[in-house]
Task: structure prediction
Amino acid sequence: MYDQRDATTGLFRPALVIDGARATAAAELSVINPATGAPVGTCPDIDRAMFDLAVRAARAGADVWKATPMERRREALRLMADRIEANLDSLTAMLTAEQGKPLAAARGEIANTALTIREVADLDLPPEVLQDDETLRIERHRVPLGVVAAIAPWNFPIKLGYWKVAPALLTGNAVILKPSPFTPLTTLAIGELIHDLLPRGVFQTVAGGDAVGPWLTEHPDIDKVSFTGSSATGSRVMASASGSLKRVTLELGGNDAAIVLDDADVETVVPKVFWAAFRNSGQVCIASKRIYVHDSLFDAFRDRFVAMAKSVRVGNGVEDGIELGPIQNKLQFDKVMALVADCKRTGLAVHEGPLDPSASARGYFVPVTVVETPPEESRIVQVEPFGPIVPLLKYSSLDEVIGRVNASDYGLGGSVWTSDPGRGAEVAARIDSGIVWINDAQAINTVTPFGGMKKSGMGVESGIEGLAEYTAGKTIVLRRG
Ligand code: NAD
Result:
């Protein structure tokens, strides 16, 4: 079993992977366990010379990798998945320690990442024949871009980071992966585990302070940035990438609505909407962040929903029976607490779940919080909370609720809950977002393209469309007559 703990301190100390080898840096950053406030490990703080070496190695690696047969690339991805699975226990412990999510959720994230890598290995992007007759044969090919920078956030560090790495590698690119400085450990550990499955320079990890992201987006020898994070940072990434005309995929924030139609079965729907709102302590881009319930069902829905909030167990994710962990970092904790305070100060009806005071004295814990019928223009409805707080809103007509839902600057996802799939489809068609689920939420498999409209981003990940984002189109025209 692979373990990067320092023998004396017990702290996790994974290394970077640069130019085919493990690399440590002169400086280190401390990583905090959000459930205890205590240091859990250190992460190398890369310096500019090491960073430039990584980009040079990636350029050389990209040339080797694009000439490598597809079957060999597929095989490398399958072996990566095997290595991750073989180390599931130690990686799970590390992810819970740095991210805060309960052990079962951490295990699920890593296992699902391995599965996704294996499924991506089977995807195909064959050339398309656009015309084939006595005068012309026109083929459209997809070719690798070169060097891809993958920039990941802290809420699902493994899934969202390696979700980029797998399709970028399959399509023949070299990849440099940068985790968030809040959650670098497990990402780097996986890098150490898998890098020798690929030629030198083809997959590398970089990590450190706030300078590293801009180094990636500015560097002229990087061809594409695939970024997941907030809309504010996304806009900086796009501005910076424009200097060298890099391609960008931006997976950004959201303020997804769940619309509960008047024919929904409350008993069935409440638990599903509840977990769509609170999974990962609400730190999910596609969490249900505004819940619109038809007024004929509202009271029954609220009673059942608030009862669930009162029974959820929030605490340190290593303990048995804990369903939700802390907010991942102090910055985000302060933002969520400010939002809770704003709701209370403005006199809104706030229902809070239980919280063990001894846990909250140590970590960044927020109780599950339900805000009843706040005004549409209130902050809790308009901003993305990214924490375990959600507004329950009433509506009376479909036109009215769709107008309210689409008034958002975001357009990431959304859901419709109904006993009539036909009605669900009609409502889904009217929601301005990149994905809408009917009687489900957050489910994305390997064939599902995922990406936002409006300020939720541009481009997609996942599916064949997501694979194509790591390629350039190239047309070959043969004149026959
Ligand atoms: P963030 O934007 O603060 O950071 C994301 C990543 O970008 C981190 O690795 C960070 O170090 C890096 N970064 C920061 N400044 C940078 C810069 N100037 N140039 C390049 N990189 C830079 O986001 P976060 O707080 O880590 O994540 C939360 C946000 O991410 C939420 O808004 C959430 O909705 C969004 N998100 C979106 C998706 C999606 O798929 N659409 C998924 C998860 C999270």
Summary: The chain has two domains: 16-252+457-476, 257-445. The pocket of nicotinamide-adenine-dinucleotide is lined by residues 151-155, 160, 178, 180-181, 213-214, 217, 228-230, 233, 236-237, 251-254, 285, 384, 386, 412, 452, 457 (CB under 6 Å). The CA atoms of residues 136 and 479 lie 5 Å apart. The mean pLDDT is 97.
